Amino acid sequence: MSSVFITGGTGYIGRRLIPELIRRGHSIRALVRNGSEKRLPSGTIAVRGDALDASTFANRVAPSDTFVQLVGVAHPSPSKKEEFRKIDFVSVRESVAAARDAGIRHFVYLSVAHPAPIMRDYVAVREEGESMIRSLAINATFIRPWYVLGPGHRWPYLILPMYWFWMLSPKSRDTAQRLYPVKLENVIRAMADAIDHPPSGVRVIEAPEMRRA
User: Fold this and answer.
1) pLDDT tens digit string along 113-134?
2) Helices (H) and strands (E) in the chain, counts
3) Per-residue pLDDT tens for 128-174?
4) What are the sequence ranges of the domains in the chain?
5) Pairing relation of β-strands 139-144 and 106-110?
6) With contact defined as beta carbons under 8 Å apart, do 123 and 85 qualify?
7) Architecture of domain 3-149+181-212
């Protein structure tokens, strides 16, 4: 089993992913800000630091062999362009630096489906994140949902019929399938499976594969 270091462990996906990884036998170290330790799931080793400053946690990543990057702006929208640069971009840059110094062997990154017709600033930052991770020349998994359906995130159910009509056209079918919302439990399972079975090189997991997980 892996020793996993997670950023964003108290977030929407992190606090659900960690119990699943512990259930599968992995040991978990999670980066948290001072005062947030109690929000981590039971069984997690808390590492205090700032996700936007690698110097505060880089020497605590080892002995982990897997790094999971989940930090990001909550409820992304086109109005949050500056936040994407200040939080999403900076956090992945710092995580890549920490992972490089710690000798991480597998980097798992919660990215986003692309290309996409909207949210270009958000997509651009995630693409830059993937590029930085590729520069490490290690095994990596990019998880690319467009929208994650779960508690508090259910409004897209109202527009699913639009996707169904979109998929009727051969010209747009592939795009519609790639941007189709994915259930939270499928995203968690896909990430946990990737950690259980690291790729050789870089693997991209998009919505169609997550829905089959």
Assistant:
1) 998 888 999 999 999 999 999 9
2) 8, 9
3) 999 999 999 999 999 999 989 888 776 666 666 676 667 767 777 78
4) 3-149+181-212
5) parallel
6) no
7) 3-Layer(aba) Sandwich (3.40)
